[in-house]
Amino acid sequence: MAQALVSLGTSWDVAFAEDTELVKYAVVAKGGGLIFSIILIGYAFMHLVIAIMCFASTAYNGHLKFNLGWWALTFPMGVFFLGCLGVADITNSDGFRIVAEVIGASMILLWVWVFSMTVFHVFTGKLFNAPSVTTLNDMDESTPPKEQDTNTTLRIATNSEA
Known about the structure:
Layout: H1 2-15, H2 20-61, H3 74-91, H4 94-124, H5 131-138, H6 150-161
């Protein structure tokens, strides 16, 4: 989104360069896109910090297990990288360029790690392991399933109608 706003402002600047009446709108679009991009990058940074804290807390407690949901981490990192890169290009800011490079490098490392873990878990057979299915298969077929207590449902319905 931040990259799109920055690109929109830059595109308006080029598209309306010959029209003197619309040039002022191009300047406003470019400035507005830059301001909103910086705000969105701030929100992205806040969410990145929260995600790192949750990740560290879960890893510290020993509850961190790999699954296919880890691939969902790669897309926001890419968007954050492109937003920082777009703002760095517009403002010629070395700070945003350094942040973009750090985010880009960490995104590549994350992608390589998630890819290698996916391949590892596919070959070990642990990626598509559903513990609930194995529990159902281990159940004794001679035991009938538990019946639901319909009296409770009936009592709730009668009390709510009163």
